[in-house]
Amino acid sequence: MGLFDKFKKIQNNDSAENSKMIAEIFRIICKGKESVDAEIAECTNSTKDYAEKNKVQFSERGISSDDADADTLMWIGCVDILINNSYAAELDFSCEVEDLIFSIGKLESFSAENITLDVKDFSYDDDITVWLDELDKKLTERGLCIGGIDIDSDSYVVFLTDINTLGKLKDSACSIGRRIDYAKNL
């Protein structure tokens, strides 16, 4: 085994550990829902096959399974799984308050927590960061917040979680070179 073969092996082991961490992060966000968990497992265990099967979805994000590394494919694939199953919502940085309320209101976790939002509680003159901050202030009394998943774009991928869990997700994502934080901070 040459020097470069050893390096490749180390990289693969790191990727395997990242795969486990990515799967765990996204399982926590979807609260271990079995059907979503199965999709996450497929994405993180057979990443290239998953990316090929979902190449249209990846290409809409400007990602090719031939060019992107496995960790990026897993991260983006799992983000899309959450979005497709209503555990996260993707919002443009220039969205209107109605878009924010509508998208967040459709999340499974909002229904489970019996949270209702009213557009009248937000100023039309503000922007998404202000609205997310206002939402966090309203949710704090319940121990909840709006988390955000960084996908290296100008959109916000948001999800509802409890404040303690967000701290753990933030640390876990950081440990693999990714970012999860309060959505208002992205």
TrEMBL record:
Domain of life: Bacteria
Residue stretches making up the DUF6630 domain: 22-182
Protein name (Swiss-Prot/TrEMBL): DUF6630 domain-containing protein
Organism (species): Ruminococcus albus (strain ATCC 27210 / DSM 20455 / JCM 14654 / NCDO 2250 / 7)
Upper classification of the organism: Bacteria, Bacillati, Bacillota, Clostridia, Eubacteriales
